[in-house]
Amino acid sequence: AQTVTQSQPEMSVQEAETVTLSCTYDTSESDYYLFWYKQPPSRQMILVIRQEAYKQQNATENRFSVNFQKAAKSFSLKISDSQLGDAAMYFCAYRSVQGAQKLVFGQGTRLTINP
Amino acid sequence: DTAVSQTPKYLVTQMGNDKSIKCEQNLGHDTMYWYKQDSKKFLKIMFSYNNKELIINETVPNRFSPKSPDKAHLNLHINSLELGDSAVYFCASSQAPSIAKNIQYFGAGTRLSVL
User: Fold this and answer.
1) How many A/B residue pairs have CB atoms within 8 Å?
2) Residues of chain B whose pLDDT is less than 50?
3) B109 shares contact with chain A (CB less than 8 Å)
4) pLDDT at site B100
5) What is the DSSP letter of A81?
6) Is A71 exposed, middle or buried (0-12, 13-18, 19+ CB in 10 A)?
């Protein structure tokens, strides 16, 4: 079974600075997808970014980018120019390509933005 | 228009009662999911239906019964509620598992409090 680990329960960053959230996972599969979801205080789960394991190029979405290290099974999220609206719980998630494709989540990292 | 909508947003009830949470998606997706987020914010899959057929049934007590009357709806019925059932329940939907790049879109969650 796949597992996802986020070792940082909480992180904080100054507004406009850069912060990196860590995620590692365990799998025996060679093809899969990785995701970062954001959960603000409103509780809504919002997709931030997605990475296909077969792609070597790291995914980027505006101020959000990932560092995907397949051999190390590492998938970190970098947030540049942090904004107050980035404050939220961030969840790393794994999904198989085959089968029923449930999302397997990490424990989450609570990100605080200091003004 | 809300893509994935859950009702109610909040549910407070007594132990032993039976309650239902409803979920509807207007994205034309074939697959729907129920996830449970516990008090420590950990998210875990409970059930998934693809085109009204149950495809994921994790280790969940028999008191929980999902029902999918059609592809756009997936309801969750809970019998004999217990204190430990208190959590936030999220509905999600995606395209069919055969579409490898499918993304899961989440509802806003239902906070269930069992007293």
Assistant:
1) 57
2) none
3) yes
4) 66
5) S
6) exposed
**Cα B77 from Cα B81, distance rounded (Å):** 10
Q: Which amino acid is at B5?
A: S
Would you say A24 and A73 are in contact if contact means Cβ atoms under 8 Å apart?
yes
Take residue A41 and report the two structure tokens written for it: 């205080």
Distance CA B50, CA B56 (A): 9
Q: Which of B2, B1, B17, B5 is closest to B91 using CA atoms? A: B5
With contact defined as beta carbons under 8 Å apart, do A93 and A103 qualify?
yes
Tell me which residue of A17, A12, A10, A4 sits closest to A74, measured CA to CA: A4
User: B36: which 2 tokens?
Assistant: 């449970």
Are the Cβ atoms of B42 and A102 closer than 8 angstroms? no
Q: How far apart are CA B26 and CA B9, in angstroms?
A: 18
Name which of A91, A100, A105 is nearest B55 (Cβ-Cβ).
Answer: A100
- Whole-angstrom Cα distance, residue B95 to residue B99? 7
pLDDT tens per residue across span A26-48: 999 989 999 999 999 989 999 99
A contacts of B101 (beta carbons < 8 Å): 33, 52
Percent helix, strand, coil in chain B, to 5, is 5, 55, 45
Q: Give CA–CA dist A34/B112, Å, rounded.
A: 29
CA-based nearest distance A46→chain B, Å: 7
What pLDDT, on a 0 to 100 scale, did the predictor assign at position B16? 97
